């Protein structure tokens, strides 16, 4: 299987946010060696105009969904070699599963193409992420070669014998060095900090770390929240970055955040799977509930004090965490619960706690819970969800492999004489197979369905690890195998479908076809819930490597050992801001929406479906260059070009202030700045603005390909007062002009676009679009209670809805469904169209809301498609959203099997029939 990569608008937006920061601010040195790019020998000669960067930062953050910022936040740090460093840091937040690694590799290639940057260090903190980055390079090789045919690039992994020399040698190729931060942060023992035995022409006897620092690379930091300790900050500074670009879904130190794709937004756009949670709550075993999380000691004035962190039941019905010393009485701490009578802490060591009644607990142990019964329930429900998902996939005729993942905390639970999980899984699989109604003689051997990946020694002895640096060698063998086998696991011919892996496997690995995750462990870190969600968020792929964008399939089920409310509240705490977290749904609160078969087989539905089921492609017959040039020349977006001025020198003035030792202590805040002489560009080659504009058009959120004569005609018509800016700041000028062209062209397309239905064999199939049943884990609207803003509402039994429930995404949609039900005399049938039904447009695919059969004057049937919004004015909507509706109007205007009436409306405006 080969993964297929497409240009995704959300990735393009993240890429452009970074690339646009450097327009006019990346001052490239002259060519050093004939035939080589300016950055071939590194970026030491490059200058970043921080004033221009700050201005670009304000422009980018103003247009992006982040806080507007106009001041650079620098990392100022003394490195491991006692050298002071300062450099800009820009952050990009992208939810796990949305192609973060792809985005930063593509960003680097765009920076190379646009500004001549050539040296990039990708900094990671685990071997899992390192292996994932290398895998992405391998998978995207052909894609990027085709996308950037004139841009050669190579990657190396720090630790390979030739990695640093190859990276440091002058080369016009773009060079990537993938480095684990633990390979850089040990000056005393790391050979990078030692002088080479033999100098060559390029390194002059410099140490490996000095060679890297001399190059001033662009540092791409993957998961920077794990690199915020003082030592790791110094390590980053030791690389002497030209700039650091930070990518994560869970930033802690944002610096300058220039782009955000939050978890909630990613889910709304259908870029990741929806998430459902099934909680298995521990039952009592005759003992009071007790979990010993940690024992720690504190020494003060020669006295050692022991403290134990315990989780106990509380009198209010919840559980709470308490930190107690010897002598503490758990009955008092719990609020007087009788089951804790006699549980007074007698003593504790680093690993064990004892009570007066003789009960002992080791760190990590839990009492009052039958852990094996919890595991059985978790495994049972994971298998059950797996078999149901596979049945759903087969029913839809999709060539899609379903995978489930189990995280175990101890290798001994799966491998060894005392291992319980393999036999437990095999027995439960047989039970669930029979329960699902499948033929017993068709059941595979459960042992052939299991595969495990655990850290191991070179001799094959499996190890428990916790992600520490000294365990990287053990973990690398597990990570390399599971990542290298990613495509193999997705092959339907491979029976392995249930993956058992170690709990330390967090960031850095995922598989798109993981639909169920069972967490067979009890510990909770500050980010564990986010991490377990992240292992299965990515959209699945079929046997041809294509993404499957089917909302009915794309749902991740987590089977956890806590209640839904505990999981939800813990997840909210991990995400922080309420607006950024995903909507996690309770698997136990599901509603199954069913087709009403009598309505599906009715003449009304047959006539409606015959009219709307066609697919069509669009083409642009003619773009009026003259009109287009006039439109762009007068476009309001060009007003931003007024801000471009000739670049001037900056004159700084300040008084020198000394301390008692004669050291200058004048601060930057006291320095005054003014403009000096304008920079004269005599002898400098004029920029190729046509090429710059073409590049901007092709790499934007909605790529656009125009002929060069058309671009030239448009640029020639731009008023002279705007043209001068192309000399002063060509990159910024090209971006503004390209944006105006893109808007003008797409708006003209609405008038000139022609939709042509494709061959009927490729039209939509009702069995694919309208499923017999579909389970939604959304809140149910209950009369008399507050209405959820999005959810499921029961349809009247005698109503005209094609389904027995309405799945609504807004209160506008819910109200419109009620309006349709109240017009039973004229509305003969209606349905909320599933998102599987889509119309192609130049600004992305569009899924309309409603399809309706309407009877007028008691005899004539009208066939309607309606989009519901909270406004009738399309200009009040997002530009691309409004344009999709306008293009859809043209699509439905060419319905080949009878007229289809399409428009947008509101609940107040009603159905909005044409001609009354």
From TrEMBL:
Keywords: ATP-binding, Helicase, Hydrolase, Nucleotide-binding. Residues 8-251 form the Helicase/UvrB N-terminal domain. The keyword Hydrolase applies. It comes from the Bacteria. GO terms for molecular function: helicase activity. Residues 801-906 form the Type III restriction enzyme C-terminal endonuclease domain. The keyword Methyltransferase does not apply. Signal peptide: none annotated. InterPro entries: Helicase/UvrB_N, Helicase_Restrict-Modif_Enz, P-loop_NTPase, RE_endonuc_C. Pfam families: RE_endonuc, ResIII. PANTHER family: ATP-DEPENDENT HELICASE IRC3-RELATED, TYPE I RESTRICTION ENZYME ECOKI R PROTEIN. This is DEAD/DEAH box helicase family protein. It comes from Rhodanobacter humi.
